[in-house]
Amino acid sequence: MSASFATDATDALPLWPLWSGDALPDQAGTWPDTAGFGAKLGEICLLPDGDGGLKGALIGLGDKASASRRRFTLAAATSLPNGVWQVRDLPEGIDANEAALALLLGQYRFTRYKGKAYEGPQFLCPEGADSDRVQAAAAGEFMTRDLINTPAGDMGPAQLEAAARDLAEQIGASIRVTSGDDLLAANFPMIHAVGRAAADAPRLLDIRLGEAGPMLTIVGKGVCFDTGGLDLKPASSMALMKKDMGGAATSLGLLKMLALSGAAEGYRLRVLIPAVENSVAGNAFRPGDVLTSRKGLTVEVNNTDAEGRLVLADALALAAEESPDLVISLATLTGAARVALGPDVPPFYCDDDATAQALAKGAEEARDPLWRMPFWQPYETMIEPNIADLDNAPSGGMAGSITAALFLRRFAEGAGRYVHLDIYGWQPSAAPGRPKGGVGQGARAILAALPQMLP
């Protein structure tokens, strides 16, 4: 598996992408018509050279009228025979950077438990694409997918810390970790409360990169496994809970993208990850408990399965104390977001219109879809219980993603601006460039939008 392009073009074979109905390149001859090639989505036609070898290939992009439904279609090129391939003559409507990223994303395989590395075709960077930026985006995405796909038995808080330390060393960042009972001494009571029942101690990862410029703080939910706590999930709901650290995985992938692409230059970056496992034991926090947060706000726990917002709250409070220019939280937070928008389109929340517009534009440019949702002020009453300042799980089941975002915003007060992304972090069925399994959401959009969000 590689997140990089081939560099030797000596024996590269040409690959022509075509929309249905497009004229064939002259080099193809009459063979595609004889073979019945119709340029259907992902259809490949190998071009023989007359001596038992290949002189190139065609790949179908499908119907151009429905192109927006088929992002990263060139990822299907990874089914070509092994060798080095060079895309020729990108047709109208296919962006060079999108094509380049598709070729790399299509090579992703999670092989940790199969012991078999990716063995497939390699590709030269398509003409007109920004090779360094695309490779950085793919490397960050591969990291995110690997972290999410790894079972919780091998990706608990300690292993997530190890991955963060490895990344920090790779990119020249500093990292500080507060764990176990030290969280209480350092005033992170809700991170401690959520994670204290697990065998693997809870911890807060604090990574910094850059010493000058506008400051961006990224807060990623790192619940490495979520049983639901004493409000225990049924088995069917627990099956995918290795992905509940998808916000942390995406945050680390984003940091890698920013560093490797050079986009981190001129900024102060900070990544905060509360890494916990929400487990069941005699010392687990209980429904009905009232927790006092780092910010001093009290929280009534009406559901121990709404733990992500609790650990994020302490981390957001820490982030806001430094008054950064922008705080972004990334979290696999609510099922309500999936009901509203499905698995592919995460909602994001932002009070600042210019920032929101920049992020929406970046999402479109990066083919990393997001949809703006409102911090709807009238719903504030829904997160205010009788005996504490806040309720972690309002009853009624309505507006769940909005009320979660409103809850988090209370703790981000003090930051210049705040953006929250309620991501899913999982591809439920295979799509071009996105095999079934863990997936990053929002990172490429942020990468594209950063110069406009933090000019």
UniProtKB/TrEMBL annotation:
One of its GO terms (molecular function) is aminopeptidase activity. CDD domains: Peptidase_M17. It holds the Pfam family Peptidase_M17. SUPFAM superfamilies: Macro domain-like, Zn-dependent exopeptidases. Gene3D superfamilies: Leucine Aminopeptidase, subunit E, domain 1, Zn peptidases. Keywords: Aminopeptidase, Hydrolase, Manganese, Protease. InterPro entries: Leucine_aapep/pepB, Macro_dom-like, Peptidase_M17_C, Peptidase_M17_N_1. Residues 303-310 form the Cytosol aminopeptidase domain. PANTHER family: LEUCINE AMINOPEPTIDASE-RELATED, PEPTIDASE B. Belongs to the peptidase M17 family. This is Leucyl aminopeptidase family protein. It comes from Paracoccus fistulariae. The lineage of its organism: Bacteria, Pseudomonadati, Pseudomonadota, Alphaproteobacteria, Rhodobacterales.
